[in-house]
Input
Amino acid sequence: MEDVRDDEPLLDDAEQNLCSHAEENPLTETPVFLEADLGRLFEDILERLGGFGRYQKCIIFLVVLPMFFASAFMQSSWLFVSAMPTDHWCHIPLHNLTFAEERQLLPLEKNDDDTVKHSTCKMYDLNYTDILEKEGSIEGVIRYINTSHTHLNTTHCRHGWTFDRHNSDTSLITEFLLVCGAAFLPTLAYILTSTGGVLGIPLGGYFSDHYGRKRSFFVFLLLYVLLGVGSCFAPNFIAFVVIACVQNIFTNPCYILPYMVGIEILTPGIRSTFSVLLTVAFTLGGVAFTAVAYFIRHWRYLIFASTAPFFLFLGYWFVMPESPRWLLSIGQFSETEKFLRKVAKANGKIYDEECEAKYSELQELYAEKKRLSSGMNPKKTSWLDLLKYPNLRKKTLVLTYLSCAVNVIYTGLNYYAPALGENPYLSFLLVGLVELPGSLFTQLIADRLGRRLTMIVCFVAGTASCIATVAIPSQGSSTWPILLTLFLVAKLFVTSAYTVQELMVYELFPTVLRGEGVALTNIVGYFVSNFGPVIVYLRFNGAAFPMIVFGCLSAIGIFATMILPETLNCPLPETIPEAENFGKLTNVRDVFRIGRRSPNVPATQDLSKRWLPVLTLVSIVLILRPTSDVELPCPAIRSLEK
Output
């Protein structure tokens, strides 16, 4: 048991103030401790049953992490399915032509960098067969064109196109001839499928909050698999886009809902580690998909390969649990107790009388909450409740901005990535590997400095690295390594900020609205992320212009993060009143308060502190080792314990 000095107050002024204001709930006139104890009691029971025990490890490592690994296949497939061929040009209707000979029979065009290259969308308005008969050889045709090309008329490609298939055998572009006048169609298809993804976010949030995380996930997963297989047989481009748009509706729920289940079966001490593990699994999945795409060069087979693993995940129905917090929120007490007894048995713990007493107290608190709410004409919750109450509204707006900022910067940096060679497989591999150090950086400090201070550190470093590009000349080989280094630093820290921001979204929204709250921030962030490529495209003020914009967005994120309360070692809020009261008295001084352990998390159970991930290019090893018994306190919890 930790010693407490007599001259050290348990609560500082801010915490005492919070405690003094915690006597009643302005939303329901219910004592705040009743609301706060809902989540705290449940997490106390989980701690007594092993915390991050054998059951939780099995669910995380054998169910959730493999799902996230495969989810990267969903997100990565479009890049290779719609891959632009290395080169293309008008097909010349002559037999036995080599690529080099065919290109010599085409008009020449000047590029933006003043280099001259064959035309990709025009050919000479000639009867090449007649000229071949007159000249007698291909060399004669080439000489004829070279001597008279200034007097020849050009026309569009009459006989289709020839593609240099160096990087892929067949993609959407090559099969459906989406070049020249139809070159905008892949971009249009991307916008339409992205719109489908946006529609899927609120759909997943609504169904998960009203019908359960588990049932919603498997319904969406089944539809995703069926539509994915169907898209492999699309007879034309329009049919493919229609199927892909509908399929993409179910992509984001298949990503979000396993994350939500994992968060809701874990205790506070392990949630940061869990979030980092998911990010690492997703990144490694993207890297693995690069190898799959390298060996499968036909887009139809590649889509099937990116969909096939999810057939296996349908069997997880018999293993994956329903979220116990969701069961509690709808009053399914018997099902929740079955879950707790299953956890106790798997973890080698005893569901003893103290656990039963705590669970009985938990049921009584829910019954009391229901009784108090019954006289207030209760109605079903919706995402609008997130904007109804001042503190919850403030946190929702800040989280939404942070989601927009990290999505725009992350997407924009991907488009702004330095040229890493002409091989798209190598480029995709390297860009993916850059994200791993960012994820591991999160693991190293998020459970030591706290979520809020970690995000501030990331935004400060990201701002500095983005703005520093202004002082570096964009031309010249000597400065290119510096620009590359600054880009990698910015990418590393925005990846870390992305991971922590996503974790805080799950930790700040109440269980009854967690699905819809996550959906709200993701919808806005996902939509706004489309401006990232636009910012990169608008480089009219110089090559550093996009980095300046990203730096400004990151700088605003520093001050926005200071508004949020710290969530390290705090139980998840269960109800709207609890979420409204949590962190109501947060001030700027709290941002820099680190180093004291939360009393409700025993040092021996704080497993995330003992997990130190070590990155190599070959593997990622997670090892256990003892660390300092120092944790960031949760003021709301300490106030209630006082």
Summary: The chain has three domains: 38-84+170-370, 87-164, 382-642. The longest strand covers residues 611-615. The radius of gyration is 29 Å.
